[in-house]
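LOG
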Amino acid sequence: MLRRTSFLLLSHACGNAGFLHGFGQETRTGSDKHKSRDKQKLAKTPPPIAVVAGTVFRDPGFAFPGARIRLEPAPEPATSHNVRGKVKVKKMEAVSDQRGEFAFRVPPVPMRYNLNITAAGHLPDQREVIVAGEGRQDVFVTLKPAP
């Protein structure tokens, strides 16, 4: 918070009649220094990311909460120019929410991923997702009941 200190120091005794000292000078309080530092931290742009997100459904098209989703890097073909050696990608797991939705934040580099979806009493499903850079890749899966 900025405080405006406007005090007049008329120094008649020193012969400086009409001398104004400190008029309109602004001072900063200690808490202001921290606030401006916090604003600088917030102003920094976040690192780029890619998102693999989707929704799990069950027949006849209802949302499927509680499905387990596992995202892992796909095996590289011999001719691939994948950047896996430069970027560490961990296997990630999630559980679909009440609306059947899930999301993973991944590095924004060209990469292929395998998405494995499982749930009790249903047949598992697998999808391949290709991330080409920043952005969002949406996946929609319908799990079939186990026989």
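LOG (cont.) second protein
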Amino acid sequence: MVLASILTLSLAAAPPPTIAPGECVVVAALDGGFAEVFGGDECDKRTLPASTFKVPHALIALDTGVVTDDTVMKWDGKKKDFRAWERDHTLQSAIRSSVVWFFQRAATSIGRERELAHLRAFGYGSQTFSREVDQFWLNGDLLISPREQTAFLTRMFSYNLPIDRRHIDTVKAAMTMPPGKLLNASGTHAFQLVWPAGTIARLKTGNGSVGGERASWLVGEIYSAGREYVFASRVRSTRTLDTTAGADLALRVLNSVAPQTGSTHKNAVIDLWAQGKPAFGVYAPNENPGPRGQGPRPAVYTRDGGENLAMNPLYDYVFLNLEGSYDAAAVKAIADGLRSPNAAGRKTLIVRIPPIREARRLRC
């Protein structure tokens, strides 16, 4: 019945979001129950972080005491690239309006050694720079990939950085966008998520060019129905890009993986079926099959075996056949392996157990 259902769904599958060359989106649930990579190897290519670096930079500035929640930096009165920059700014307004001069001034006060120490402590991208301390995130000196952005955001939103929790909360508050809106240096833009009511989006844009190549980013966190998801979206091109190119890509992909309204489960196969998409899986192989031609040996299933299955991006589920003899240790081992941080996406574990009458007989 399970296989028949899967074959039927595969005939009417909805297409995944279209990802063009130079595009990548990585999405991951903080609880490990969901992870998707759209764009393949593109997601491992590094570019300048541009203004997405304001997220870790704000944490560094707070941690070093260069700025506080109440700091107001004075505009020097000179014309800037955007009108929103031509006024005094707090940390929160500088993040939301992506004010470069605010963070350049902060970087000068932080200094090279403290910047580098925090990059290493955060495990942020290439973790180094050699040129100007007030330009390294803008000129290609510091580099990062979408996968690395997502790894950093996972640590940040899990409060797993060597930073006071209140500083992370300050930056989270600054990244929190009005419903259906995205703020950046050029103004307010529509960002209509089709996620459940009450969803909160914490976002940061970034745009820049190095060597004739432009990168447009959107990174952040989505809080919805009690679960948290981090993501990084980037468009990379040698052609002209809109400043919202990374955001437009993120919106398209995030809406394609939106959780179903009223759904609180963490089951990949149910999510796929609900969206009319196919689910593909594999039987968990016995790791103790014995030589060909000889009688069967006791089946063995290990965490390593489950992890190997989890690393295959083609599988949505793993089928563990324990009809002959239920083995709780085997279920736990495979389940633990499927939760590996190396897993290529979320997997569902389907376990076939002995018939109820057999279970009753064994209990008696």
